[in-house]
Amino acid sequence: MNIWTVFQTIKNQQFRPESVKAVYQDLSAVPQEEQAKWIQNKKEKIGTEPSYTGNLILEKELFAELTKNLQQTQNYDLYLEEIEQKAEQMTSVIFSDDRSYAYRSAQKTPAVFKKLQGIHVTTDVSEGVILATRSEFTDFCMFLIIIAAVYFLIFEERKFKLYALLKSTYRGRQSVIRAKVFSGAGIVLFCVLVFYGGNYLIGCCKYGFGDPARSVQSVTILYESPFRLSVLEYLVLYLVLKFIVCYSVAGNAVRAEGERFCRFTGCCFFKIYKYHGIYKSISCL
């Protein structure tokens, strides 16, 4: 079901993956200082040679999007200067409340973005990274799997009335719970690698990730990120954070023990999307 959803997402995109992948491969072979000229030459040939999409209108829109991405990466230093200027204006306003969140945030912003000065932002394919990490439906699937795993780890014993017997043994409390937590961790790790790793594989095969060593700000939706990461580091960190969140939810659910489980499932669902929302807000600042 998750794979079908990912392929439906690809199907609903404006441009075919083959077209996007091909145009960025050709662009990456051009020196960066000549990329704008290369795009302009391609635009002039669209009327007679729509070589990437086979459609005149789509070809124009594809190169319009490519031009927009190129201008965005070329203006990254100006973006950092603009951030610094806005922060200075905010802190220098006479009527600024130095106790307000906006004022304190404006004071910290220049220091946060100063460390990004000098990074090299390049124009490369972003669609593969976006497809791999935009995974709301995958999160929902993981939530259902966690609930199912916890059910079998806890309620199967209760169903056959083994839980009371295990609790009465010498190592029937902490050791049993610890074993369940580690079992849940193994299940979560396997599912994270299968589900999110599957998204990575599809994104890589369909679009590609581009140069994994380039800065994460080269990805269009992460252009404003305040973190000095490469695309490879971002993808690895994304998987690690997904595992930590899912593992913590599963571990807490196991420790919830039976009576509180039904009430706890709602808390688990909230926690998944709470952490997911925090992560997205941090990575897309």
Features:
285 residues, mainly alpha, 0% strand, transmembrane helix, transmembrane
User: How does the overall form come out from the CA principal axes?
Assistant: flat
Distance between the termini: 31 Å
Mean pLDDT: 78
Number of strands: 0
Q: How helix-rich are the residues, as a percent range?
A: over 70%
Count of domain modules: 3
Computed structural class: mainly alpha
Total DSSP helices? 12
| Relative strand content | under 5%
Residue ranges: pLDDT <50 for 5 or more in a row?
A: 258-266, 275-285
Radius of gyration: 24 Å
Order of helices and strands: HHHHHHHHHHHH
The description of the largest β-sheet is: none
Transmembrane segments: 137-155, 176-196, 235-254
Keywords: Membrane, Transmembrane, Transmembrane helix
Explain how this protein is built.
Helix content is about 70%, strand content about 0%. Helix 1 (about 1-10) runs parallel beside helix 10 and helix 7 runs antiparallel to helix 10 (about 175-205). The chain contains 12 helices and no strands. The two termini are about 30 Å apart. The protein has about 280 residues and is mostly helical. Residues about 260-265 and about 275-285 have low confidence and may be disordered. The protein folds into 3 domains: about 15-75, no CATH class; about 75-115; about 125-285, no CATH class.
